[in-house]
Amino acid sequence: MTNRITDNDLLGYYVQVAKALGEMFAPVLESVVHDLRKPSHSIIAIYNGHITGRKIGDGTSDLGYKRIKGELPD
Q1: Per residue in 33-62, pLDDT tens?
Q2: How far apart (Å, rounded) are the C-alpha atoms in residues 30 and 40?
Q3: Most buried residue among 9, 48, 55, 66 by CB atoms closer than 10 A?
Q4: Rounded CA gap, 33 and 66, in Å?
Q5: For the chain, how long is the longest CA-to-CA vector?
Q6: Tens digit of each residue's pLDDT (9 = 90 or more) over 13-35
Q7: How many CB atoms lie within 10 A of CB 9?
Q8: What are phi and psi of 33, to 5 degrees?
Q9: Cβ contacts of residue 49 below 8 Å, gap of 6+?
Q10: CA–CA separation, 72 vs 65, rounded Å?
Q11: Would you give the distance in Å from CA 33 to the centre of its chain?
């Protein structure tokens, strides 16, 4: 039996990293985690959102859409 890491496991890890960065560099760094499977509501975690006014449930940026379309290098 193999342990498989799910997408949600990975996103949970990134949320913890974003939280740590947000706390370490508050109030001058906004850290955001996007789930690009849902681009119009992709923000699943945000720390120091006062910087841009974004919040959980907001959509991705132009950069996110370019990533989805494959217009950016990996």
Answers
A1: 999 999 999 999 999 999 999 999 999 988
A2: 20
A3: 48
A4: 16
A5: 45
A6: 999 999 999 999 999 999 999 99
A7: 10
A8: -115, 125
A9: 30, 32, 55
A10: 10
A11: 1
Q: What is the pLDDT of residue 63?
A: 84
Tokens standing for residue 65: 């859409």
For residue 19, which amino acid is it?
A: K
11's CB contacts (< 8 A; 6+ apart) are 33, 35, 44
Q: List, in order, residues 6 or more apart from 48 with CB less than 8 Å away.
A: 22, 25, 26, 27, 28, 29, 30, 31
**Alpha helices, DSSP H only, in 1-74?**
7-24, 62-69
DSSP letter at 32?
A: E
Of the candidates 25, 36, 44, the one whose C-alpha atom is nearest the C-alpha of residue 63 is 36
Nearest-5° angle of CA 49, CA 72, CA 64? 30
Does residue 49 contact residue 55 with C-beta atoms inside 8 Å? yes
